[in-house]
Automatic annotation (TrEMBL):
<keyword id="KW-0966">Cell projection</keyword>
<protein>
    <submittedName>
        <fullName>Flagellar biosynthesis protein FlhG</fullName>
    </submittedName>
</protein>
<keyword id="KW-0282">Flagellum</keyword>
<dbReference type="InterPro" id="IPR027417">
    <property type="entry name" value="P-loop_NTPase"/>
</dbReference>
<keyword id="KW-0969">Cilium</keyword>
Length: 270
């Protein structure tokens, strides 16, 4: 990224003030739209929520939220639309389709437009929830999930699911910036989930020098799962904020600029 672009972005960053209390990414196989259900649960508890969905592009339909996507964030980065014009109010939250094309992702000028566009959203939300696409760490993306200081990792209760969860934690932890991981299990009983958590946490501690938290278990029954998400949403308000204000919008954008400037994360061998 050239010096002029960096200077422009730095000028924009200085304009950002304290914003959303929590910026949280959700990684993992989210075929059941858990990110959207969590966003709705947060809304039900009085929070103003922005759901950034990296899996949604123009022409897609969000089944759970019954929303058809006419424009995505690529339109903003091409200066065709504003963020307010592509945002979709639905189920009490604001849905922002954040799928992009690689050509746009690689453009330095587009990154600066991204910073300018998000400046218009300052002060509007209590929580920014980022739904990473299933392969978001390897697909065209502005790295919203990689820029979030809080990360919820969906873990299937199988050996393959644990392996996949560790791989995502390893890749995410290798990108610039500190972050806190919380593991939310699916497809297993709570007793087994806690055993799997202890094993995975031990590996993370040994090889990645980080310690994730246990975020709970999502039951297969829809109503029971809704209760779990309600409890998770309520607990999010008590999550400690980083002392260095990493949850401020300014820090989020600084991290976003960093991870999109170089997508060659440093990983720990294991």
């Amino acid at each position: 990224m050239n010096r002029t672009v960096i200077d422009q972005a730095e000028g924009l960053r200085r304009m950002f003030a304290a914003d959303a209390a929590h910026m949280v990414a959700m990684l993992g196989d989210d075929q059941d739209d858990i990110a959207a259900a969590l966003a709705v649960a947060l809304c039900g508890q009085g929070k103003k929520v922005l759901l950034l969905d990296e899996a949604l592009r123009a022409g897609d339909n969000h089944t759970l939220l019954s929303s058809f996507v006419r424009h995505d964030i690529s339109s903003v980065l091409r200066s065709e639309k504003s963020l307010q014009e592509i945002a979709i109010p639905t189920a009490g939250i604001t849905l922002l389709p954040a799928g992009i094309t690689r050509a746009v992702q690689n453009a330095d000028a587009a990154r600066v437009r991204l910073l300018a566009a998000f400046h218009a959203l300052i002060g509007m939300f209590d929580v920014v929830l980022i739904h990473a696409a299933p392969s978001a760490l390897n697909r065209p993306s502005f790295g919203f999930a990689l820029a979030a200081p809080e990360v919820i990792v969906l873990c299937k209760g199988t050996s393959e699911g644990i392996t996949a969860a560790y791989a995502q934690i390893k890749t995410t932890a290798g990108t610039p910036g500190d972050r806190h991981f919380r593991l939310l299990f699916q497809g297993t009983e709570e007793a087994m989930a806690k055993i799997l958590f202890r094993n995975l946490a031990a590996v993370c501690r040994q090889h990645l020098k980080l310690m994730p938290d246990f975020a709970g278990v999502l039951p297969e029954q829809r109503f029971a799962a809704a209760d779990t998400l309600e409890a998770l949403a309520a607990g999010m308000t008590a999550w400690p904020l980083p002392e260095r204000d990493d949850s401020r919008f300014e820090a989020f954008m600084r991290r976003l600029l960093s991870v999109t400037g170089s997508r060659r994360p440093t990983t720990t061998e294991h």
